[in-house]
Automatic annotation (TrEMBL):
Source organism, top-level taxon: Eukaryota
Family matches, as SUPFAM superfamilies: P-loop containing nucleoside triphosphate hydrolases
Membrane protein topology class: Multi-pass membrane protein
Subcellular location: Membrane
Name of one Pfam family that matches: ABC_tran
The protein's name: ABC transporter domain-containing protein
Gene Ontology cellular-component terms listed: membrane
Organism of this sequence: Amphimedon queenslandica (Sponge)
UniProt keyword annotations, A-Z: ATP-binding, Glycoprotein, Membrane, Nucleotide-binding, Repeat, Translocase, Transmembrane, Transmembrane helix, Transport
MF annotations from Gene Ontology: ATP binding; ATP hydrolysis activity; ATPase-coupled transmembrane transporter activity
InterPro entries referenced in this protein's UniProt entry, alphabetically: AAA+_ATPase, ABC1_TM_sf, ABC_transporter-like_ATP-bd, ABC_transporter-like_CS, P-loop_NTPase, Type_1_exporter
Domain ABC transporter: 86-327
Length: 342
């Protein structure tokens, strides 16, 4: 302002400026100051963006640790059967991040076609690792035996075609900020011809159709980020429908009801029972009541099968499973008592 006043009061000199030019200069300085302030404010965001971009680029350049065949076989060209048999033979495995810790020291396990295998065991016994190996998120150690799909080593198949034969329902499913219908269709992105009738059919199997129809927008209802507009049981049933839309030959359930209360567990368990009918199924169980009806139950301890049989057979042994079931029953009774007093 002082410089502007001096310029205005100095006619006939090189410093002279009329009032319009003075205001232009002041406006330019104010605008430059605002731009500089915004630049300073954006520096943290710019740095965060640079870090995020570097992580994305590093991820894109990451080479998978699994052995991918150059010309893998499309599994659909090898099998026309509706059933699937999955067999693990002498599997050794350790995670790359913990090479000194043996997770599976030579596991052998078979799931017969159309049957349900329940897998139980303490935390860290290798239960979820079996599912990861079946979907080839990891490969067994080089000195291992093989994992076979209908008696053929899964390593020869294209990764995408192998995974299309399986569907996983995790303990905490992730739903996307889109409609219920789109979340269900997301389970079969390789198909662009999914009809609304197919979506409704799997929703009915998952015991979620009636709830969806009670909503004002039905199947077009937005679920919010990570499914925040739905309860835990509702999210789980949408995830079951999403898993079924691809009509998998093998259904993988990883402690799918462990995070639910007893009321929601019953509804979701009914949906899971319908979903696995006539389909090869592997259930990782936290609550043993979810696998009482399984065709076979394998008890894992430190990566090895220590007991296997039906629920009744294992109870008669009065071994590991018997003790685990006793503890599970006690916990269930305590939870029911808590529900009464709430």
């Amino acid at each position: 302002m002082i410089i502007g006043a001096y310029a205005y009061t100095s006619p006939g000199t090189v410093y002279y400026a009329d009032i319009s030019n003075i205001f232009k200069a002041i406006g330019a300085m104010l605008y430059a100051g605002w731009l500089f302030k915004e630049l300073i404010r954006s520096l943290p965001d710019t740095q965060s963006a640079q870090i995020a971009a570097s992580r994305i680029l590093a991820l894109l350049e990451e080479k998978p640790s699994i052995n991918i065949p150059n010309q893998g076989v499309d599994i659909a060209t090898k099998f026309q059967e509706d059933y699937a048999k999955l067999a693990l033979d002498d599997i050794h495995f350790s995670y790359l991040s913990r090479p000194g810790v043996v997770v599976l020291p030579g596991l052998s396990l078979t799931v017969k076609p159309g049957k349900t295998l329940g897998i139980v065991g303490p935390s860290g016994s290798g239960k979820s690792t079996i599912l990861s190996l079946a979907e080839r998120f990891y490969d067994p150690d080089p000195d291992s035996g093989s994992i076979e799909f209908n008696n053929i080593n899964i390593n020869i198949f294209e990764i995408s075609s192998l995974r299309r034969q399986m569907s996983l329902v995790p303990q905490d499913p992730v739903l996307f900020d889109m409609s219920i219908s789109d979340n269900i269709r997301y389970g079969a992105l390789f198909r662009n011809d999914i009809t609304e009738e197919e979506v409704i059919e799997v929703a009915k199997v998952a015991n979620i159709h009636e709830f969806i129809m009670s909503l004002p927008h039905g199947y077009q209802t937005m679920v919010g980020s990570r499914g925040t507009q739905l309860s835990g049981g509702e999210k789980q049933r949408v995830a079951i429908a999403r898993a079924l839309i691809r009509n998998p030959k093998i259904l993988l359930l990883d402690e799918a009801t462990s995070a639910l209360d007893s009321e929601n567990e019953k509804v979701v368990q009914e949906a899971l029972d319908k979903a696995r009918r006539g389909r090869t199924t592997i259930i990782i169980a936290y609550r043993l009541s979810t696998i009482y009806e399984a065709d076979s139950i394998a008890v894992l301890h430190e990566g090895s099968v220590v007991e296997q049989g039906t629920h009744e057979e294992l109870m008669r042994l009065q071994g590991h499973y018997y003790l685990m079931n006793s503890v599970s029953q006690q916990q269930k009774e305590e939870e029911e008592e808590d529900d009464i007093f709430v």
